[in-house]
Amino acid sequence: MLVVALRAWSTNEYAITPGNATNVAPLVSIKGLATDAHRDRILLVDVYLQPLSELQYLLMHLESHVEFVSADQLLSPGIPNSQLVDQGYLQMSDSQMAAKVAALRALGWKVPATPSGAVITGVVNNTPASRAGLSVGDEITAVDATTVTSQCSLEAALAHVAVGTKLELTVRPGRFSATGVLTRTPAIHVAVTTAASPHPAALTGCPQAPTSGVSWLGVSPEDGVAYALPGRITLDTANIGGPSAGLAMTLTLIDALSKGSMTGGHVIATTGTIDPQGNVGDVGGVAEKTIAVENAGAHYFFVPQVEVATARSVANASLHVIGVTRLSQVLAALRRLGGAALVPLTAPR
After folding, report:
1. Residue 4 has pLDDT above 70, yes or no
2. CB atoms within 10 A of CB 322
3. What is the helix, strand, coil percentage profile of the chain, to 5?
4. Closest by CA position to 348, among listed 33, 66, 23
5. Do 125 and 256 share a structural domain?
6. Distance of CA 267 to the CA centre of its chain
7. 20 to 30 Å CA-CA from 41: which of 156, 180, 216, 218?
8. What is the pLDDT of residue 16?
9. At what angle do helices 84-106 and 327-336 cross, to 10 degrees?
10. What average pLDDT does this structure show over 100-110?
11. Tens of pLDDT, residues 150-183
12. Statement to judge: residues 108 and 20 lie in one domain
């Protein structure tokens, strides 16, 4: 009876356990740009994120290399657990684009960027947005006749709207496939009636953000940006969510688009977010990822600088953990390991 009851009770806890170290090169398809037939082995590292029942929670405490996190650590207040998967897929979609831009810019390409809207990263339960059917991945491009180009412009468009006002949003709906591919369909018009913000002050960092009387939709937005990329670059990261493969994808694209072996023939693994400017950001589950890297037999593991101590605390003597904060540091370290200088196969424009 106890076991049955425990299995039936869900908890608010998740377990992070070691996942896989996957060679990124086979996941890449490039058309319209010259590529090198030689591809280095650059591994992205993932972890398994598992919601726990009461029984699983107890049993997992008997295992090694498990990190426990609560739903509150993974989701913003008011956002249901059901959005967690789509949030991860949106983060991967953003990470793929950032990796493409960072890689091309590292090779000398000018990649124009155009603000495109405010992309929804979360929808709070029982709010105007949830009642209107808005979801993670949708991009808001206008409020009534006011164009929206970013998170802050969305807030500015709502800044002087009275609570309870009926508005028409222009939205490009975003939908995720079963494996996490994001596509957007043509714009539609969505009617909403604004509510009062539950927060006494807006602390978003936007210069136009009001501090009281805020009309609220109930969404967490991020800046939408459209990039003009040369060629067609595709990354097949089916069923992998989150932003932590950004650095690995960036390095793999640079390797594919340049001459010679960027790693000097070494098998390397990386974890870390990437932004279009080449900044490397911290991630979760680094201890568990270190175990996955060791299981894959890599000898060099690039991690965000702030997480070096965590990785080294579980690494064996044969694994060299290297901390970085920028893509340029990784490229310099690979040159010291015998990697080739970056020579793009297609002349940058």
Report:
1. no
2. 18
3. 30, 30, 40
4. 33
5. no
6. 24
7. 180
8. 83
9. 60
10. 98
11. 999 999 899 888 999 999 999 999 999 999 999 9
12. yes
Residue range of the domain that includes 294: 15-73+90-112+229-336
Token duo for residue 194: 């604004």
Span 264-305, pLDDT tens digits: 999 999 999 999 999 999 999 999 999 999 999 999 999 999
**Token pair 């969404």 in the structure block, residue:** 219
In a domain, residue 6? The reply is no
> 201 Cβ partners below 8 Å, 6+ apart?
211, 212
Q: Is residue 85 part of a domain?
A: no
In this prediction, residue 212 has a pLDDT band, given cuts at 50, 70 and 90, of low
Together in a domain, 234 and 327: yes
User: Does residue 2 sit within a domain?
Assistant: no
Q: Which of 197, 173, 214 is nearest to 77 (CA)?
A: 197
The secondary structure of 297-340 as a DSSP string is T-SEEEEEGGGHHHHHHH--TT-EEEEESBHHHHHHHHHHTTPP
The residue out of 166, 194, 226 marking a domain boundary is 226
Distance from chain centroid for Cα 272:
10
Distance, in Å, from the CA atom of 41 to the CA atom of 23, rounded to the nearest integer, reads 6
H helix or E strand, kind and range, residue 220: strand 219-227
Q: How many CB atoms lie within 10 A of CB 83?
A: 21
Q: Does 235 share its domain with 108?
A: yes
Q: Which of 226, 252, 281 is the endpoint of a domain?
A: 226
Mark whether 284 and 180 lie in a shared domain: no
Residues 104 and 234 in one domain: yes
Mean pLDDT of all residues belonging to the chain: 90
Q: Is residue 212 domain-shared with residue 256, that is, in the same domain?
A: no
Q: What is the pLDDT of residues 308-322, one digit of tens each?
A: 999 999 999 999 999
Domain containing 36 — which CATH number?
A: 3.30.230
